[in-house]
Specification:
Layout: H1 15-28, E1 32-36, H2 39-50, E2 56-60, H3 65-74, E3 81-85, H4 90-95, E4 101-107, H5 119-129, E5 132-136, H6 141-144, E6 154-158, E7 172-176, H7 178-191, H8 197-207, H9 210-213
Parallel strand pairs: 2-3, 2-4, 4-5, 5-6
Antiparallel strand pairs: 1-7, 6-7
Length: 214
């Protein structure tokens, strides 16, 4: 139901974490954002939240190696299928979609080859087929690129890198609609991969100089 104003128990929320989430949502032009203890905590929780037995996802070949491993190897044991397509091959991307496809995942710019996707085209493919789109935009930061403005559903940033900026924190953010954040927040409370208040404080510190540093 969108309830998030809970701070009596650390896993359910903290004022400093809430401030950092609000700042990140504003930067990405999103309705809301959610912070996680690491990038892989965010990716795996999103995947486990959206995928179910006998469902399917599409991921580009230039996505982060551990993300691809989770999609193609770990999820297989739960009867979730994954198709890997060439980054930037939009015909292959659309052809790979199936009636049970739930997610279309890529990075832009990609790591390490810095391939930049046509996000409007990716969003259009997802929208026409009823598939949620997830873009890891870590390398661009919201200063250079705001995928939600192109129609992407979920935007991920490894806050460990440019957003934090000082090599002294570990965090990840997901920015998207209120409805999707409400779903993911409930899952996060269950899985427990929350960001601690001190790292949230360090992240807020880093965001103050983000534009200057980028």
């Amino acid at each position: 139901g969108g309830a998030k104003e809970r701070s009596e128990y650390g896993r359910y929320g903290n004022p400093t974490v809430a401030e950092a989430e609000a700042a990140l949502a504003a930067l990405d032009g999103a309705e809301d954002a959610l912070l996680f203890s690491s990038g892989m905590a965010a990716v795996t929780l999103v995947l486990l939240s959206f995928m179910s037995s006998n469902s399917h996802l599409v991921i580009t070949n230039d996505a982060y190696r551990r993300t691809r491993q989770f999609c193609t190897q770990f999820l297989k044991r739960y009867h979730v299928a994954a198709t890997v397509v060439e980054a930037g091959d939009y015909e292959a991307m659309e052809a790979a979609l199936q009636p049970n496809t739930r997610l279309l995942i890529s990075e832009s710019p990609t790591n390490p080859y810095l391939r930049v996707l046509d996000l409007e085209r990716v969003a259009d493919i997802g929208r026409r087929h009823g598939v949620k789109t997830l873009i890891d935009a870590t390398f661009a930061t919201p200063i250079n690129q705001r995928p939600i403005e192109f129609g992407i559903d979920l935007v991920l940033h490894s806050a460990t890198k440019y957003l934090g900026g000082h090599n002294d924190l570990l965090a990840c953010s997901i920015a998207c609609s209120d409805a999707l954040i409400s779903l993911l927040r409930q899952q996060l409370w269950m899985f427990g991969a929350v960001l601690d208040p001190h790292n949230a404080y360090l992240l807020l510190r880093g965001l103050k100089t983000l534009a200057l540093r980028v």
